[in-house]
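Researcher: Let's do a round of design. I'm pasting the structure tokens now; please hold your answer until I've finished.
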């Protein structure tokens, strides 16, 4: 392999680090616990239909040297303003959702205090300090180790759980019905494997990677890097569904909506299969996974808001990134301070909002990547275009189905 190709790896793993979090540790495990293997169809379908729109982020960045936000502005400033409003409306809730899960795991692992607001402040403060010291390069290097640790521990847990299970597998697929089940399904799909606006983050990280390493990443290398991360998120998503199904399905145990209790149940889910001696290793793996999601979202949202602000006002604000980082910190703290009681509701709100806004990002990414602003030779092939159109119909259809059935 050429050195330039090896250097191009990174943004795809940052994508995986941002994606493998609440959607996997919380939602996928709940799906297995509540429905057994019955929602595997939903996991695989949503990953298939979201794939092109996530891929268009690194594809566009590699083909043009610009982020998707630069492309959105070319489609019309109103598009950028719409993104600005949607992102501002959702980023605090999303950050609060991932941070509170991380705080719950930290309280179980390190003790000290069971006050999750305090733990959230500690975690966000450490994240900001790391971003100040290491910036993008630290994220890029750190993610490789985190993904390896999580992958090994999760796959091992599933293998042992399969060996310990004596029940016959019921792979009957389930179509949820009723408001409660439908709400969970949309929440499950909303962040599986991640919200679609992460495609924007991916394009920003790709451009940043190019600046930091001073190399030109070819579109095929950028897509390969993305595919590595994306396939990893799918495999681990299936693994978490299997763990929930094998250990908790049809049992008397149900997951708590309280952060600390849920974190304890989650760690016990692993140790029940790997043995008590594995507690520390598993707790570290789960915590680092959620910590990686917390720090990547804490980095990406301010980057996106700062860049979109610059593009809307045609002016570069000197400390824009740090302003948005500070505002995100404050907004997240206020949400957690006054909405800490029910973690489940917080996660549900964030994931549903992400799913309902997904068609907006899907349509924009498709128009941009197939239009005049992307060089013809770097536009997707006919199969990817067809899959994209089917995906747009899928996302709009599910959103309308949910809105008419709640």
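Researcher: That's everything. Go ahead.
Model: Designed sequence:
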């Amino acid at each position: 392999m050429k050195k330039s190709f090896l250097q191009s790896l990174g943004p795809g793993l940052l994508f995986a680090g941002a994606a493998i979090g609440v959607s996997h540790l919380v939602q996928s495990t709940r799906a297995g616990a509540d429905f057994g293997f019955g929602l595997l169809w939903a996991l695989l379908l949503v990953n298939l239909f979201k794939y092109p729109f996530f891929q268009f982020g690194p594809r566009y960045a590699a083909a043009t040297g610009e982020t998707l936000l630069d492309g959105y502005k070319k489609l019309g400033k109103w598009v950028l303003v719409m993104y600005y409003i949607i992102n501002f409306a959702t980023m605090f809730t999303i950050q609060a959702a991932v941070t509170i899960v991380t705080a719950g795991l930290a309280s179980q692992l390190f003790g000290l205090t069971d006050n999750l607001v305090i733990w959230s402040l500690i975690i966000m403060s450490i994240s900001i300090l790391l971003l100040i010291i290491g910036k993008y390069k630290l994220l890029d290097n750190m993610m490789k180790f985190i993904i390896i640790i999580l992958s090994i521990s999760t796959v091992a847990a599933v293998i042992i759980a399969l060996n310990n299970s004596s029940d016959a597998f019921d792979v009957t697929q389930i179509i949820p019905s009723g408001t409660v089940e439908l709400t969970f399904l949309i929440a499950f799909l909303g962040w599986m494997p991640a919200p679609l606006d992460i495609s924007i983050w991916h394009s920003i990280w790709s451009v940043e990677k190019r600046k930091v390493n001073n190399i030109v990443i070819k579109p095929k290398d950028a897509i390969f890097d993305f595919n590595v991360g994306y396939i990893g998120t799918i495999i681990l998503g299936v693994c978490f569904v299997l763990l929930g199904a094998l250990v908790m399905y049809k049992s008397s145990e149900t997951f708590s909506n309280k952060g600390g209790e849920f974190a304890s149940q989650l760690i016990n889910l692993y140790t029940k299969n790997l043995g008590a001696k594995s507690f520390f290793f598993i707790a570290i793996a789960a915590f680092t996974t959620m910590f990686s999601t917390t720090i990547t979202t804490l980095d990406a949202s301010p980057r996106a808001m700062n860049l979109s602000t610059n593009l809307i006002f045609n002016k570069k604000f000197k400390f824009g990134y740090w302003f948005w980082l500070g505002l995100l910190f404050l907004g997240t703290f206020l949400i957690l301070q006054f909405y800490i009681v029910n973690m489940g509701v917080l996660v549900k709100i964030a994931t549903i909002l992400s799913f309902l806004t997904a068609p907006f990002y899907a349509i924009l990414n498709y128009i941009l990547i197939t239009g005049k602003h992307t060089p013809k030779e770097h536009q997707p092939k006919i199969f990817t275009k067809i899959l994209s159109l089917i995906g747009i119909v899928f996302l709009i259809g599910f959103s309308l189905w949910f809105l008419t059935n709640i």
